Write a sequence for this structure.
Protein backbone atom coordinates (compact mmCIF):
# COMPACT_ATOMS: atom_id res chain seq x y z
CA UNK A 1 0.00 0.00 0.00
CA UNK A 2 1.29 3.40 -1.07
CA UNK A 3 -0.10 6.80 -0.30
CA UNK A 4 1.01 9.41 -2.82
CA UNK A 5 0.45 13.12 -2.53
CA UNK A 6 0.81 15.51 -5.43
CA UNK A 7 0.55 19.26 -5.40
CA UNK A 8 -1.91 21.34 -7.30
CA UNK A 9 0.44 23.95 -8.75
CA UNK A 10 -0.38 25.54 -12.06
CA UNK A 11 0.97 23.95 -15.20
CA UNK A 12 1.78 20.57 -13.70
CA UNK A 13 1.60 17.79 -16.25
CA UNK A 14 0.08 14.81 -14.47
CA UNK A 15 0.63 12.48 -17.41
CA UNK A 16 3.88 10.89 -16.17
CA UNK A 17 2.47 10.35 -12.69
CA UNK A 18 -0.75 8.82 -13.96
CA UNK A 19 1.19 6.52 -16.32
CA UNK A 20 3.43 5.49 -13.44
CA UNK A 21 0.44 4.83 -11.20
CA UNK A 22 -1.03 2.66 -13.95
CA UNK A 23 2.20 0.59 -14.09
CA UNK A 24 2.28 0.06 -10.34
CA UNK A 25 -1.45 -0.64 -10.19
CA UNK A 26 -1.07 -3.26 -12.92
CA UNK A 27 1.71 -4.85 -10.84
CA UNK A 28 -0.78 -5.24 -7.97
CA UNK A 29 0.21 -2.26 -5.84
CA UNK A 30 -2.58 -0.64 -3.85
CA UNK A 31 -2.43 3.13 -4.19
CA UNK A 32 -4.27 6.05 -2.64
CA UNK A 33 -3.67 9.37 -4.38
CA UNK A 34 -4.09 12.60 -2.43
CA UNK A 35 -3.87 15.97 -4.13
CA UNK A 36 -3.60 19.61 -3.21
CA UNK A 37 -5.28 22.43 -5.00
CA UNK A 38 -4.06 25.66 -3.46
CA UNK A 39 -2.79 27.12 -6.68
CA UNK A 40 -5.96 26.30 -8.54
CA UNK A 41 -7.91 27.87 -5.70
CA UNK A 42 -5.72 30.98 -5.83
CA UNK A 43 -6.27 31.37 -9.54
CA UNK A 44 -10.00 30.76 -9.30
CA UNK A 45 -10.22 33.21 -6.41
CA UNK A 46 -8.49 35.87 -8.49
CA UNK A 47 -10.86 35.27 -11.39
CA UNK A 48 -13.86 35.46 -9.05
CA UNK A 49 -12.65 38.70 -7.42
CA UNK A 50 -11.95 36.97 -4.16
CA UNK A 51 -8.16 36.73 -4.11
CA UNK A 52 -6.44 34.44 -1.63
CA UNK A 53 -5.19 35.73 1.64
CA UNK A 54 -2.31 34.00 3.35
CA UNK A 55 -1.53 34.37 7.00
CA UNK A 56 1.47 33.45 9.12
CA UNK A 57 1.11 31.63 12.40
CA UNK A 58 3.45 32.54 15.26
CA UNK A 59 5.25 29.24 14.50
CA UNK A 60 6.09 30.57 11.03
CA UNK A 61 3.74 28.20 9.20
CA UNK A 62 1.98 29.98 6.37
CA UNK A 63 -1.59 29.01 5.66
CA UNK A 64 -4.55 30.14 3.66
CA UNK A 65 -7.15 32.22 5.48
CA UNK A 66 -10.37 30.52 4.51
CA UNK A 67 -13.54 32.51 4.94
CA UNK A 68 -16.71 30.80 3.73
CA UNK A 69 -16.41 32.13 0.20
CA UNK A 70 -12.80 31.01 0.01
CA UNK A 71 -13.86 27.57 1.26
CA UNK A 72 -16.35 27.31 -1.58
CA UNK A 73 -13.71 28.40 -4.09
CA UNK A 74 -11.35 25.82 -2.58
CA UNK A 75 -14.08 23.16 -2.89
CA UNK A 76 -14.55 23.96 -6.56
CA UNK A 77 -10.86 24.15 -7.44
CA UNK A 78 -9.96 20.93 -5.66
CA UNK A 79 -12.97 19.19 -7.20
CA UNK A 80 -11.86 20.22 -10.67
CA UNK A 81 -8.38 18.84 -10.11
CA UNK A 82 -9.87 15.71 -8.54
CA UNK A 83 -12.09 15.10 -11.54
CA UNK A 84 -9.29 15.83 -14.00
CA UNK A 85 -7.11 13.26 -12.26
CA UNK A 86 -9.93 10.71 -12.17
CA UNK A 87 -10.55 11.36 -15.85
CA UNK A 88 -6.88 10.96 -16.76
CA UNK A 89 -6.58 7.73 -14.75
CA UNK A 90 -9.86 6.44 -16.21
CA UNK A 91 -8.41 7.13 -19.65
CA UNK A 92 -5.65 4.65 -18.75
CA UNK A 93 -8.25 2.11 -17.76
CA UNK A 94 -7.86 2.57 -14.02
CA UNK A 95 -10.90 2.43 -11.69
CA UNK A 96 -10.15 5.81 -10.12
CA UNK A 97 -12.75 7.04 -7.66
CA UNK A 98 -12.69 10.64 -6.47
CA UNK A 99 -13.68 11.59 -2.95
CA UNK A 100 -13.04 14.46 -0.63
CA UNK A 101 -12.43 13.96 3.05
CA UNK A 102 -15.98 15.23 3.52
CA UNK A 103 -17.50 12.18 1.87
CA UNK A 104 -18.72 9.47 4.17
CA UNK A 105 -16.77 11.07 7.02
CA UNK A 106 -13.56 9.97 5.29
CA UNK A 107 -11.45 12.51 7.17
CA UNK A 108 -12.80 13.83 10.42
CA UNK A 109 -11.22 17.01 11.68
CA UNK A 110 -11.26 19.80 14.16
CA UNK A 111 -12.15 23.25 12.98
CA UNK A 112 -9.95 26.11 14.07
CA UNK A 113 -12.73 28.59 14.74
CA UNK A 114 -10.21 31.20 15.56
CA UNK A 115 -6.63 31.36 14.37
CA UNK A 116 -3.78 33.33 15.82
CA UNK A 117 -1.77 35.11 13.19
CA UNK A 118 1.19 37.42 12.98
CA UNK A 119 0.63 40.54 10.92
CA UNK A 120 3.00 43.47 10.78
CA UNK A 121 4.90 41.90 13.66
CA UNK A 122 1.87 41.73 15.93
CA UNK A 123 -0.25 38.80 16.95
CA UNK A 124 -3.99 38.97 16.40
CA UNK A 125 -6.97 36.63 16.16
CA UNK A 126 -8.93 35.86 12.99
CA UNK A 127 -12.44 34.39 13.10
CA UNK A 128 -14.76 32.85 10.48
CA UNK A 129 -11.98 30.55 9.36
CA UNK A 130 -12.86 27.26 7.72
CA UNK A 131 -9.56 25.48 8.02
CA UNK A 132 -8.95 22.54 10.24
CA UNK A 133 -6.79 19.58 11.04
CA UNK A 134 -7.87 16.04 10.29
CA UNK A 135 -7.47 13.59 13.14
CA UNK A 136 -9.43 10.46 12.18
CA UNK A 137 -9.69 8.41 9.01
CA UNK A 138 -12.73 6.35 8.10
CA UNK A 139 -10.46 3.41 7.33
CA UNK A 140 -13.29 0.90 6.71
CA UNK A 141 -14.62 3.07 3.89
CA UNK A 142 -11.24 3.16 2.15
CA UNK A 143 -10.60 -0.52 2.77
CA UNK A 144 -13.98 -1.36 1.28
CA UNK A 145 -13.17 0.63 -1.83
CA UNK A 146 -9.62 -0.73 -2.12
CA UNK A 147 -10.85 -4.30 -1.63
CA UNK A 148 -13.33 -3.73 -4.44
CA UNK A 149 -10.41 -2.69 -6.67
CA UNK A 150 -10.87 1.07 -6.75
CA UNK A 151 -8.12 3.64 -6.72
CA UNK A 152 -9.20 6.45 -4.39
CA UNK A 153 -8.27 10.00 -5.39
CA UNK A 154 -8.74 12.28 -2.40
CA UNK A 155 -9.28 16.03 -2.22
CA UNK A 156 -8.01 17.88 0.88
CA UNK A 157 -11.19 18.53 2.84
CA UNK A 158 -12.31 17.17 6.17
CA UNK A 159 -15.59 17.21 8.03
CA UNK A 160 -15.98 18.65 11.52
CA UNK A 161 -17.97 17.09 14.35
CA UNK A 162 -20.79 19.45 13.30
CA UNK A 163 -20.70 18.31 9.69
CA UNK A 164 -18.88 21.41 8.46
CA UNK A 165 -16.48 21.19 5.55
CA UNK A 166 -12.92 22.15 6.39
CA UNK A 167 -9.96 23.07 4.23
CA UNK A 168 -7.06 20.90 5.36
CA UNK A 169 -3.43 20.67 4.45
CA UNK A 170 -3.05 17.92 1.85
CA UNK A 171 0.45 16.82 2.98
CA UNK A 172 -0.71 16.28 6.54
CA UNK A 173 -3.95 14.67 5.33
CA UNK A 174 -1.90 12.24 3.23
CA UNK A 175 0.27 11.50 6.28
CA UNK A 176 -2.78 10.69 8.38
CA UNK A 177 -4.16 8.45 5.64
CA UNK A 178 -0.83 6.64 5.24
CA UNK A 179 -0.72 5.87 8.94
CA UNK A 180 -4.34 4.73 9.13
CA UNK A 181 -3.97 2.46 6.13
CA UNK A 182 -0.68 0.99 7.29
CA UNK A 183 1.02 2.15 4.11
CA UNK A 184 4.52 0.88 3.38
CA UNK A 185 5.45 4.34 2.21
CA UNK A 186 4.17 7.88 1.88
CA UNK A 187 5.46 9.71 -1.18
CA UNK A 188 5.14 13.49 -1.16
CA UNK A 189 5.72 14.69 -4.70
CA UNK A 190 6.62 18.33 -5.16
CA UNK A 191 8.29 20.72 -7.60
CA UNK A 192 11.76 20.45 -6.08
CA UNK A 193 14.05 17.40 -5.84
CA UNK A 194 13.39 17.01 -2.09
CA UNK A 195 14.66 18.78 1.00
CA UNK A 196 17.63 20.97 0.06
CA UNK A 197 20.51 22.08 2.28
CA UNK A 198 20.38 25.33 0.36
CA UNK A 199 16.99 26.26 -1.01
CA UNK A 200 18.67 28.10 -3.89
CA UNK A 201 20.73 25.10 -4.94
CA UNK A 202 18.70 22.22 -6.37
CA UNK A 203 21.80 20.00 -6.33
CA UNK A 204 22.13 20.33 -2.54
CA UNK A 205 19.69 17.48 -1.98
CA UNK A 206 19.55 15.77 1.40
CA UNK A 207 19.15 12.15 0.36
CA UNK A 208 18.52 10.52 3.70
CA UNK A 209 17.17 11.58 7.07
CA UNK A 210 16.94 9.08 9.91
CA UNK A 211 13.43 9.38 11.28
CA UNK A 212 14.75 10.06 14.78
CA UNK A 213 16.70 13.08 13.52
CA UNK A 214 13.92 14.68 11.50
CA UNK A 215 13.42 17.45 14.03
CA UNK A 216 16.96 18.72 13.46
CA UNK A 217 16.27 19.23 9.76
CA UNK A 218 13.26 21.48 10.31
CA UNK A 219 15.30 24.71 10.13
CA UNK A 220 16.22 23.88 6.52
CA UNK A 221 12.57 23.88 5.47
CA UNK A 222 11.05 27.03 4.05
CA UNK A 223 7.54 27.89 2.89
CA UNK A 224 5.47 24.86 2.08
CA UNK A 225 8.35 22.49 2.81
CA UNK A 226 7.62 23.13 6.50
CA UNK A 227 4.25 21.44 6.16
CA UNK A 228 5.80 18.57 4.23
CA UNK A 229 8.29 17.89 7.01
CA UNK A 230 5.50 18.19 9.54
CA UNK A 231 3.48 15.70 7.51
CA UNK A 232 6.50 13.42 7.26
CA UNK A 233 6.95 13.53 11.03
CA UNK A 234 3.27 12.78 11.59
CA UNK A 235 3.39 9.85 9.16
CA UNK A 236 6.43 8.38 10.93
CA UNK A 237 4.66 8.84 14.27
CA UNK A 238 1.64 7.12 12.71
CA UNK A 239 3.75 4.07 11.96
CA UNK A 240 4.64 4.65 8.31
CA UNK A 241 8.13 3.18 7.87
CA UNK A 242 9.24 5.42 5.00
CA UNK A 243 8.42 8.88 3.71
CA UNK A 244 9.96 10.17 0.48
CA UNK A 245 9.96 13.81 -0.60
CA UNK A 246 10.59 13.76 -4.32
CA UNK A 247 10.28 15.57 -7.60
CA UNK A 248 6.92 15.10 -9.30
CA UNK A 249 7.95 16.83 -12.53
CA UNK A 250 9.74 13.94 -14.22
CA UNK A 251 9.00 10.61 -15.86
CA UNK A 252 8.14 7.78 -13.47
CA UNK A 253 8.11 10.11 -10.49
CA UNK A 254 6.67 7.50 -8.16
CA UNK A 255 8.98 4.61 -9.06
CA UNK A 256 11.96 6.92 -8.83
CA UNK A 257 10.89 8.19 -5.44
CA UNK A 258 10.49 4.60 -4.26
CA UNK A 259 14.01 3.84 -5.54
CA UNK A 260 15.25 6.59 -3.26
CA UNK A 261 15.59 9.46 -5.71
CA UNK A 262 14.61 12.23 -3.35
CA UNK A 263 14.82 12.79 0.37
CA UNK A 264 14.13 9.51 2.12
CA UNK A 265 13.00 9.70 5.74
CA UNK A 266 13.07 6.27 7.32
CA UNK B 1 -35.06 2.18 -2.24
CA UNK B 2 -35.77 5.67 -3.48
CA UNK B 3 -33.92 7.70 -6.07
CA UNK B 4 -34.51 11.42 -5.65
CA UNK B 5 -33.41 14.10 -8.06
CA UNK B 6 -33.30 17.76 -7.19
CA UNK B 7 -32.48 20.66 -9.45
CA UNK B 8 -29.65 23.08 -9.04
CA UNK B 9 -31.51 26.35 -9.55
CA UNK B 10 -30.30 29.48 -7.81
CA UNK B 11 -31.71 30.28 -4.41
CA UNK B 12 -33.08 26.83 -3.64
CA UNK B 13 -33.19 26.13 0.08
CA UNK B 14 -32.22 22.50 0.50
CA UNK B 15 -32.97 22.49 4.23
CA UNK B 16 -36.49 20.97 4.02
CA UNK B 17 -35.33 18.27 1.61
CA UNK B 18 -32.32 17.35 3.72
CA UNK B 19 -34.46 17.22 6.87
CA UNK B 20 -36.97 15.02 5.07
CA UNK B 21 -34.22 12.72 3.81
CA UNK B 22 -32.97 12.42 7.40
CA UNK B 23 -36.45 11.36 8.57
CA UNK B 24 -36.80 8.72 5.88
CA UNK B 25 -33.21 7.52 6.36
CA UNK B 26 -33.86 7.13 10.09
CA UNK B 27 -36.93 5.07 9.23
CA UNK B 28 -34.68 2.69 7.30
CA UNK B 29 -35.30 3.91 3.77
CA UNK B 30 -32.39 3.60 1.33
CA UNK B 31 -31.98 6.79 -0.63
CA UNK B 32 -29.80 7.89 -3.52
CA UNK B 33 -29.82 11.63 -4.15
CA UNK B 34 -29.01 12.94 -7.62
CA UNK B 35 -28.64 16.65 -8.28
CA UNK B 36 -28.41 19.01 -11.19
CA UNK B 37 -26.25 22.06 -11.36
CA UNK B 38 -27.04 23.86 -14.58
CA UNK B 39 -27.92 27.13 -12.93
CA UNK B 40 -24.82 27.12 -10.80
CA UNK B 41 -22.80 26.39 -13.92
CA UNK B 42 -24.49 29.23 -15.78
CA UNK B 43 -23.71 31.67 -13.01
CA UNK B 44 -20.14 30.49 -12.64
CA UNK B 45 -19.68 30.66 -16.41
CA UNK B 46 -20.89 34.27 -16.42
CA UNK B 47 -18.50 35.17 -13.61
CA UNK B 48 -15.63 33.48 -15.45
CA UNK B 49 -16.43 35.23 -18.75
CA UNK B 50 -17.51 32.03 -20.38
CA UNK B 51 -21.30 32.37 -20.44
CA UNK B 52 -23.45 29.35 -21.16
CA UNK B 53 -24.66 28.59 -24.62
CA UNK B 54 -27.84 26.63 -25.09
CA UNK B 55 -28.71 24.86 -28.28
CA UNK B 56 -31.92 23.33 -29.59
CA UNK B 57 -31.98 19.87 -31.11
CA UNK B 58 -34.27 19.22 -34.07
CA UNK B 59 -36.53 17.36 -31.59
CA UNK B 60 -37.01 20.60 -29.66
CA UNK B 61 -34.97 19.48 -26.65
CA UNK B 62 -32.83 22.30 -25.35
CA UNK B 63 -29.41 21.41 -24.01
CA UNK B 64 -26.22 23.07 -22.92
CA UNK B 65 -23.44 23.25 -25.49
CA UNK B 66 -20.48 22.00 -23.53
CA UNK B 67 -17.07 22.84 -24.89
CA UNK B 68 -14.11 21.75 -22.76
CA UNK B 69 -14.05 24.95 -20.75
CA UNK B 70 -17.78 24.71 -20.10
CA UNK B 71 -17.30 21.10 -19.00
CA UNK B 72 -14.74 22.23 -16.44
CA UNK B 73 -17.07 24.97 -15.21
CA UNK B 74 -19.85 22.39 -15.00
CA UNK B 75 -17.54 20.07 -13.04
CA UNK B 76 -16.78 22.81 -10.53
CA UNK B 77 -20.35 24.05 -10.14
CA UNK B 78 -21.81 20.57 -9.70
CA UNK B 79 -19.03 19.67 -7.26
CA UNK B 80 -19.79 22.72 -5.16
CA UNK B 81 -23.46 21.82 -4.96
CA UNK B 82 -22.54 18.19 -4.27
CA UNK B 83 -20.30 19.18 -1.39
CA UNK B 84 -22.83 21.63 0.00
CA UNK B 85 -25.45 18.88 0.03
CA UNK B 86 -23.05 16.40 1.62
CA UNK B 87 -22.16 19.01 4.21
CA UNK B 88 -25.80 19.79 5.00
CA UNK B 89 -26.67 16.09 5.29
CA UNK B 90 -23.56 15.45 7.41
CA UNK B 91 -24.72 18.27 9.68
CA UNK B 92 -27.87 16.19 10.28
CA UNK B 93 -25.72 13.19 11.14
CA UNK B 94 -26.21 11.39 7.83
CA UNK B 95 -23.35 9.44 6.22
CA UNK B 96 -23.66 11.27 2.91
CA UNK B 97 -21.03 10.41 0.33
CA UNK B 98 -20.62 12.53 -2.77
CA UNK B 99 -19.67 11.04 -6.10
CA UNK B 100 -19.99 12.01 -9.71
CA UNK B 101 -20.86 9.51 -12.39
CA UNK B 102 -17.18 9.69 -13.36
CA UNK B 103 -16.05 8.06 -10.13
CA UNK B 104 -15.36 4.37 -10.28
CA UNK B 105 -17.20 4.23 -13.61
CA UNK B 106 -20.43 4.85 -11.74
CA UNK B 107 -22.24 6.06 -14.88
CA UNK B 108 -20.84 4.96 -18.21
CA UNK B 109 -22.02 6.95 -21.16
CA UNK B 110 -21.67 7.66 -24.83
CA UNK B 111 -20.24 10.95 -25.90
CA UNK B 112 -22.05 12.88 -28.59
CA UNK B 113 -18.96 13.98 -30.47
CA UNK B 114 -21.08 15.96 -32.81
CA UNK B 115 -24.52 17.32 -32.12
CA UNK B 116 -27.09 18.46 -34.60
CA UNK B 117 -28.67 21.74 -33.66
CA UNK B 118 -31.23 24.12 -35.03
CA UNK B 119 -30.11 27.72 -35.24
CA UNK B 120 -32.02 30.46 -37.01
CA UNK B 121 -34.27 27.79 -38.45
CA UNK B 122 -31.41 25.84 -40.01
CA UNK B 123 -29.79 22.60 -38.94
CA UNK B 124 -26.06 22.50 -38.43
CA UNK B 125 -23.45 20.34 -36.67
CA UNK B 126 -21.48 21.36 -33.58
CA UNK B 127 -18.25 19.60 -32.61
CA UNK B 128 -16.07 19.60 -29.46
CA UNK B 129 -19.11 18.88 -27.36
CA UNK B 130 -18.67 17.13 -24.02
CA UNK B 131 -22.22 16.05 -23.38
CA UNK B 132 -23.37 12.50 -23.43
CA UNK B 133 -25.98 10.02 -22.42
CA UNK B 134 -25.40 7.51 -19.66
CA UNK B 135 -26.30 3.95 -20.51
CA UNK B 136 -24.78 1.75 -17.77
CA UNK B 137 -24.66 1.99 -13.98
CA UNK B 138 -21.93 0.46 -11.86
CA UNK B 139 -24.57 -1.07 -9.62
CA UNK B 140 -22.12 -3.10 -7.48
CA UNK B 141 -20.35 0.11 -6.44
CA UNK B 142 -23.59 1.72 -5.29
CA UNK B 143 -24.79 -1.47 -3.62
CA UNK B 144 -21.51 -1.74 -1.74
CA UNK B 145 -21.87 1.82 -0.48
CA UNK B 146 -25.56 1.44 0.38
CA UNK B 147 -24.89 -1.86 2.18
CA UNK B 148 -22.24 -0.09 4.22
CA UNK B 149 -24.85 2.48 5.25
CA UNK B 150 -23.82 5.43 3.07
CA UNK B 151 -26.16 7.85 1.39
CA UNK B 152 -24.79 8.51 -2.12
CA UNK B 153 -25.13 12.04 -3.48
CA UNK B 154 -24.47 11.98 -7.21
CA UNK B 155 -23.39 14.76 -9.57
CA UNK B 156 -24.52 14.56 -13.20
CA UNK B 157 -21.39 13.43 -14.99
CA UNK B 158 -20.65 10.20 -16.80
CA UNK B 159 -17.49 8.64 -18.15
CA UNK B 160 -17.07 7.64 -21.79
CA UNK B 161 -15.47 4.42 -23.03
CA UNK B 162 -12.28 6.48 -23.47
CA UNK B 163 -12.36 7.75 -19.88
CA UNK B 164 -13.62 11.19 -20.83
CA UNK B 165 -15.89 13.12 -18.49
CA UNK B 166 -19.30 13.90 -19.93
CA UNK B 167 -21.99 16.35 -18.90
CA UNK B 168 -25.22 14.39 -18.66
CA UNK B 169 -28.81 15.30 -17.97
CA UNK B 170 -29.47 14.73 -14.28
CA UNK B 171 -33.13 13.71 -14.69
CA UNK B 172 -32.23 11.00 -17.17
CA UNK B 173 -29.23 9.97 -15.07
CA UNK B 174 -31.51 9.60 -12.04
CA UNK B 175 -33.91 7.53 -14.15
CA UNK B 176 -31.11 5.19 -15.20
CA UNK B 177 -29.96 4.84 -11.59
CA UNK B 178 -33.50 4.14 -10.36
CA UNK B 179 -33.90 1.35 -12.88
CA UNK B 180 -30.50 -0.19 -12.17
CA UNK B 181 -31.08 -0.15 -8.41
CA UNK B 182 -34.60 -1.53 -8.63
CA UNK B 183 -35.95 1.56 -6.87
CA UNK B 184 -39.55 1.50 -5.69
CA UNK B 185 -39.90 5.09 -6.87
CA UNK B 186 -38.09 7.87 -8.67
CA UNK B 187 -38.94 11.34 -7.37
CA UNK B 188 -38.05 14.26 -9.63
CA UNK B 189 -38.28 17.41 -7.54
CA UNK B 190 -38.61 20.67 -9.38
CA UNK B 191 -39.79 24.26 -8.95
CA UNK B 192 -43.33 23.64 -10.18
CA UNK B 193 -46.04 21.44 -8.67
CA UNK B 194 -45.64 18.81 -11.40
CA UNK B 195 -46.78 18.55 -15.02
CA UNK B 196 -49.36 21.24 -15.70
CA UNK B 197 -52.13 21.23 -18.31
CA UNK B 198 -51.44 24.91 -18.68
CA UNK B 199 -47.88 25.98 -17.98
CA UNK B 200 -49.12 29.40 -16.84
CA UNK B 201 -51.58 27.95 -14.31
CA UNK B 202 -49.92 26.23 -11.34
CA UNK B 203 -53.32 24.91 -10.23
CA UNK B 204 -53.76 22.96 -13.48
CA UNK B 205 -51.80 20.02 -12.11
CA UNK B 206 -52.07 16.65 -13.78
CA UNK B 207 -52.16 14.36 -10.77
CA UNK B 208 -51.95 10.97 -12.41
CA UNK B 209 -50.62 9.60 -15.67
CA UNK B 210 -50.92 5.90 -16.45
CA UNK B 211 -47.46 4.81 -17.57
CA UNK B 212 -48.82 3.44 -20.83
CA UNK B 213 -50.24 6.87 -21.73
CA UNK B 214 -47.17 8.92 -20.93
CA UNK B 215 -46.39 9.54 -24.58
CA UNK B 216 -49.66 11.39 -25.06
CA UNK B 217 -48.73 13.91 -22.37
CA UNK B 218 -45.45 14.90 -24.00
CA UNK B 219 -46.97 17.86 -25.89
CA UNK B 220 -47.84 19.48 -22.55
CA UNK B 221 -44.18 19.57 -21.52
CA UNK B 222 -42.14 22.69 -22.18
CA UNK B 223 -38.51 23.55 -21.57
CA UNK B 224 -36.85 21.35 -19.03
CA UNK B 225 -40.08 19.46 -18.35
CA UNK B 226 -39.45 17.65 -21.65
CA UNK B 227 -36.36 16.02 -20.19
CA UNK B 228 -38.22 15.13 -17.01
CA UNK B 229 -40.92 13.31 -18.96
CA UNK B 230 -38.23 11.62 -21.04
CA UNK B 231 -36.51 10.57 -17.81
CA UNK B 232 -39.82 9.36 -16.40
CA UNK B 233 -40.45 7.28 -19.51
CA UNK B 234 -36.94 5.81 -19.32
CA UNK B 235 -37.38 4.97 -15.64
CA UNK B 236 -40.69 3.19 -16.34
CA UNK B 237 -39.03 1.29 -19.20
CA UNK B 238 -36.22 0.44 -16.78
CA UNK B 239 -38.73 -1.23 -14.44
CA UNK B 240 -39.34 1.56 -11.91
CA UNK B 241 -42.99 1.18 -10.87
CA UNK B 242 -43.61 4.81 -9.96
CA UNK B 243 -42.22 8.20 -10.95
CA UNK B 244 -43.39 11.36 -9.20
CA UNK B 245 -42.81 14.88 -10.52
CA UNK B 246 -43.25 17.15 -7.54
CA UNK B 247 -42.54 20.50 -5.98
CA UNK B 248 -39.19 20.64 -4.17
CA UNK B 249 -39.78 24.09 -2.66
CA UNK B 250 -41.90 23.09 0.33
CA UNK B 251 -41.60 21.32 3.66
CA UNK B 252 -41.28 17.54 3.48
CA UNK B 253 -41.04 17.60 -0.29
CA UNK B 254 -40.12 13.94 -0.53
CA UNK B 255 -42.79 12.54 1.80
CA UNK B 256 -45.42 14.66 0.09
CA UNK B 257 -44.31 13.49 -3.33
CA UNK B 258 -44.52 9.89 -2.12
CA UNK B 259 -48.05 10.57 -0.83
CA UNK B 260 -48.99 11.56 -4.35
CA UNK B 261 -48.77 15.34 -4.12
CA UNK B 262 -47.49 15.97 -7.61
CA UNK B 263 -47.79 14.21 -10.94
CA UNK B 264 -47.68 10.48 -10.35
CA UNK B 265 -46.72 8.30 -13.29
CA UNK B 266 -47.36 4.66 -12.51
Amino acid sequence: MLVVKIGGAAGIDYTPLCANIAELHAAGERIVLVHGGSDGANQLGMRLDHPPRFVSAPSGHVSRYTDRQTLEIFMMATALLNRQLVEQLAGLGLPALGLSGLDGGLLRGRRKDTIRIVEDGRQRILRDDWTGTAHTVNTPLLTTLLDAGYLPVIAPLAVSAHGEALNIDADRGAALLAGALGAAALVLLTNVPGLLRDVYDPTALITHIPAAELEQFQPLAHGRMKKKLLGAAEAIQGGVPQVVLADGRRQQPLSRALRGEGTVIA
User: Anything to note?
Assistant: Chain B has one domain: 2-49+68-107+133-265.
